[in-house]
């Protein structure tokens, strides 16, 4: 959340904030694809350590840039892309290595623990980030993010060697084309992917949070609470979505929750105070988890 807040403070332009989020998201998407290809071809421990260490270097760069009398906007864009790419690359390699680390018989339990920690972290970290913004500024956010990244990298040094599994090699572009072909030939899977894409676009309302801080008279800590509402709604949706297995018409329920999320976005523009607005992003991500 520190990058959108910093860009809003520097430019007072929601377009610039949206551009930074778009570029970072695109780099994360590319990192996920590249990470999957590399994890199937190279030793995964090295990939994980390389990605985490490189991501930490990006946070150091953001911290140093924030300490300058006049921070560089171009550097923020480039380092945001840098961190988005290498962070998603490292996550993909780590997920690919999970079966070898915990054993396939423990994969479900490991997935549940991972989901719980990710959800808790995504709820708590925006609130902490908001408090840091209020007390120390964006430089403290980037500095502590760099320190946390390097500390976790040190813990990952104890990982065993994780060679890629033996499998027939296929050109990465051919694999990607096969996946897209399957998506287009399956109306059900394609429809679900389309709904997911629309919901992701709808949840991009968080780009406006820094700009809304002025009209809603929000402090940095309150901005953090608003960002935390998104993963909180996702966590609630993940906890309750297990009931879909007993639903007679899960497709109809999915469409209903999707429409509900769009209605919540429409109501967001009518909120007179930021405290009411917290319920809207949470509702969007609640629907997205379904």
From TrEMBL:
Q: Which InterPro entries match?
A: MFS (IPR011701), MFS_dom (IPR020846), MFS_trans_sf (IPR036259)
Q: Where is the Major facilitator superfamily (MFS) profile domain?
A: 1-290
* Transmembrane stretches, start-end: 15-35, 47-68, 74-98, 110-132, 177-199, 219-239, 251-271
PROSITE patterns named in the record: MFS (PS50850)
Instruction: Report the membrane topology from the UniProt record.
Output: Multi-pass membrane protein
Give the record's keywords alphabetically: Cell membrane, Membrane, Transmembrane, Transmembrane helix, Transport
Molecular function (Gene Ontology), one example: transmembrane transporter activity
- One Pfam family here: MFS_1
Q: Superkingdom of this entry's organism?
A: Bacteria
Q: What is its main location?
A: membrane
Q: What is this protein called?
A: Multidrug efflux pump Tap
Which gene name belongs to this protein? entS
């Amino acid at each position: 959340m520190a990058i959108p807040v910093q860009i809003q403070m520097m430019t007072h332009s929601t377009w610039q904030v949206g551009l930074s989020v778009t570029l970072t998201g695109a780099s994360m998407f590319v990192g996920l694809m590249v990470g999957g290809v590399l994890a199937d071809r190279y030793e995964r421990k090295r990939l994980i350590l390389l990605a985490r260490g490189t991501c930490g270097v990006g946070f150091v760069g953001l911290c140093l840039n924030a300490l300058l009398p006049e921070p560089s906007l171009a550097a923020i864009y480039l380092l945001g892309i840098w961190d988005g790419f290498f962070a998603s690359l490292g996550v993909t390699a780590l997920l690919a290595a999970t079966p070898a680390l915990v054993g396939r018989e423990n994969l479900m339990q490991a997935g549940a623990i991972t989901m719980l920690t990710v959800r808790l972290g995504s709820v708590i970290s925006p609130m902490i980030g908001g408090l840091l913004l209020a007390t120390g500024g964006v430089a403290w956010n980037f500095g502590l993010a760099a320190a946390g990244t390097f500390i976790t990298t040190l813990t990952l040094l104890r990982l065993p060697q994780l060679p890629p599994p033996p499998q027939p090699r296929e050109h990465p572009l051919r694999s990607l084309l096969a996946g897209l072909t399957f998506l287009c030939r399956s109306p059900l899977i394609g429809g679900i992917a389309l709904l997911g894409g629309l919901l992701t676009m709808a949840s991009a309302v968080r780009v406006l949070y820094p700009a809304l801080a002025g009209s809603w008279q929000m402090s940095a800590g309150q901005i953090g609470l608003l960002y935390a509402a998104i993963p909180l709604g996702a966590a609630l949706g993940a906890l309750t979505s297990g009931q879909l297995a007993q639903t007679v018409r899960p497709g109809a329920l999915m469409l209903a929750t999707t429409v509900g999320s769009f209605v919540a976005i429409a109501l967001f523009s009518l909120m007179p105070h930021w405290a009411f607005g917290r319920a809207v992003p949470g509702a969007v991500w609640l629907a997205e988890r379904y």
